[in-house]
Amino acid sequence: MVWCEWDTAARMKKFMNSAELRQAMEKAGVVGKPTVSFFDKMDVMSV
Question: What is the pTM assigned to this prediction?
Fold first, then answer.
C-alpha cells in the first residue's frame, strides 16, 4: 500500500501517467497493473 497526498488533482494525474513512475514500478518488480483508488477527502475517526 502506498499513500500519497497532492495539492492538486492535476499534479497527481501527471505523476500517475509519468514515465518516471512506470520506470520505478518496473525497477521495484511490479509485473501487473496495480489497483489504484483515489479519494478527495479523508475522514479522521477517533476511538
Answer: 0.63
